[in-house]
Here is the input.
Amino acid sequence: MQDYTTLKQNAALIRDNVTKGSNTASFVGQTIHDLATHSEENNASFIDYNHAGDPISLDADTWTDIPNDGAGAFSNNTYAPINVDELIDVTTGYINVSDLSLGDSILIRNDYSVNPNTNNSLLEFRYVLGNGGGEYTLEKTVGRLDSGSGKNYRFSLEPDLIYMGDDNTRLNPIKLQAKLSTSGILTNAGSVIQTV
Here is the structure.
């Protein structure tokens, strides 16, 4: 099967040849088949990484890396994107998008619980992207955990979008980090990452 770049080039050749009246039936048929197959294979392109490791401690007002070993029972790479080996480095828990192309995007749905030691603690979440002087963050305030301390607050339904606008984003690890205004415990169930 032809790769996507070749498919786009062949589609342009078909357009040019049809305009000139050339007989391209075999070439057109194969390209249409490959385009349909490529589209079908990429409609459900995701990898689900479930974490099997222990919960981590959150020190007050300290950004902390969120681990993901990908060893959980419900990890699933059956529908991985074409030509993508992994989307998370399971030794660090960092997102790895180096197999993607510029212009691609990923949707990330994280699933984690936080158990604060103090009621009304403020929870924040961020991605750390890029490298060196080009490092930058995408941050959000998750909210106040104000239904009591010593209990789990689960966050699992809100997806985040990151696009590959340059090689600084695409070729460097993307860290997932959390910060709590007081001390507490974070339990990571995992992350599902879908390519767009």
